[in-house]
Automatic annotation (TrEMBL):
GO terms for molecular function: amino-acid racemase activity. It comes from Desulfoluna spongiiphila. This is Aspartate/glutamate racemase family protein. It holds the Pfam family Asp_Glu_race. It comes from the Bacteria. Signal peptide: none annotated.
C-alpha cells in the first residue's frame, strides 16, 4: 500500500481559520481540540480580532483569509471552517479560492434547517451581535435574514466584555452560561421557536444547556463540522 505524502500533516479532515483572541475556549468550542474525536488544525490570523470582523469588515479583510485558507489546503486540510460565524460574509470568495469544501459559518445550515422543519416553522438565530448581523451574511450562504428571528448577546456583560470587547481574558463560566441560556429562553418565549441556529462559535460549548432549557433542536458549527468530516473522511466499518 502506498501512503500519499507531500503534505505537512496527514489525515487531518478539518482546518480552522481563527481570529486572534485570548478568551477561554472551553470543551465544545471548535478551537478546543478535545471537542472533536478527529484531528483539527488551526491557522490564526494575527491582527484580525472579533471587533474588526464584526464592526469594521473592510473589503481588504478578505485577502488574508483567502491566503490562510489556501495555506490550510496546501498543508493537508480536507475541509475548511472558521472560528466566527460572521465569516459568512466571505463564504463565496473562500469557496472560489480553494478546491476543498468551505463551511465558515453555522449560518450555512439555515436553508437546510428550513427544509428539515418546513415552510411554517419558526427558526431562531442566536448571534454575538444582532446589530452587526446583516442581510449580506445570510445572502452569502444562501439564506434570507427575513426568514428567521434573531437575538443578539448585546446587554450580556460577561459575554460582551470578554468575547467582544476583550477587556479581560478570563470569564465566569456560570455567569456566561446563564447569559447565553437566558438569551435563548427569551427568544423562545417571544417567538415559540421550532429550531435554533447558533451563529456564534462561542455559544457551542453551551449548546446542550440551551437545548435542555428551550426544548427544541439546536444547530451549530460543531454539528456542521461533524457533517463535513464524514463527507471528506469516512470511517471504516468492520463486520457485516
Amino acid at each position: 500500500m502506498i501512503l500519499k505524502g507531500g503534505l505537512l500533516h496527514t489525515d487531518t479532515p478539518i482546518g480552522v481559520l481563527c481570529l486572534e483572541s485570548y478568551f477561554p475556549k472551553p470543551p465544545g468550542h471548535l478551537r478546543n481540540p478535545v471537542t472533536f474525536d478527529f484531528p483539527v488544525t488551526y491557522k490564526v490570523l494575527r491582527g484580525i480580532d472579533v471587533p474588526t470582523l464584526l464592526f469594521n469588515p473592510t473589503p481588504e479583510l478578505v485577502a488574508p483569509f483567502i491566503e490562510a485558507a489556501r495555506a490550510l489546503e496546501r498543508e493537508g486540510a480536507m475541509a475548511i471552517t472558521g472560528s466566527c460565524g460572521f465569516l459568512a460574509r466571505f463564504q463565496k470568495e473562500l469557496t472560489e479560492a480553494v478546491r476543498v469544501p468551505v463551511l465558515v459559518s453555522g449560518l450555512i445550515q439555515i436553508p437546510m434547517v428550513r427544509t428539515f422543519h418546513g415552510p411554517d416553522a419558526v427558526i431562531g438565530v442566536l448571534t454575538a451581535s444582532k446589530d452587526a448581523l446583516t442581510p449580506m451574511h445570510f445572502a452569502q450562504v444562501g439564506g434570507d435574514i427575513n426568514d428567521v428571528v434573531i437575538k443578539g448577546m448585546e446587554g450580556c456583560p460577561e459575554f460582551w466584555e470578554t468575547i467582544i470587547e476583550a477587556r479581560r481574558t478570563d470569564f465566569d463560566m456560570d455567569r456566561l452560561e446563564a447569559e447565553i441560556c437566558g438569551a435563548a429562553e427569551a427568544l423562545m418565549a417571544e417567538h415559540n421557536l421550532d429550531a435554533l441556529v447558533l451563529e456564534c462559535t462561542d455559544l457551542s460549548a453551551f449548546a446542550r444547556s440551551i437545548q435542555e432549557r428551550i426544548g427544541c433542536p439546536v444547530y451549530d458549527i460543531d454539528g456542521l463540522i461533524e457533517y463535513a468530516r464524514y463527507a471528506v473522511k469516512r470511517k471504516r466499518y468492520h463486520g457485516l
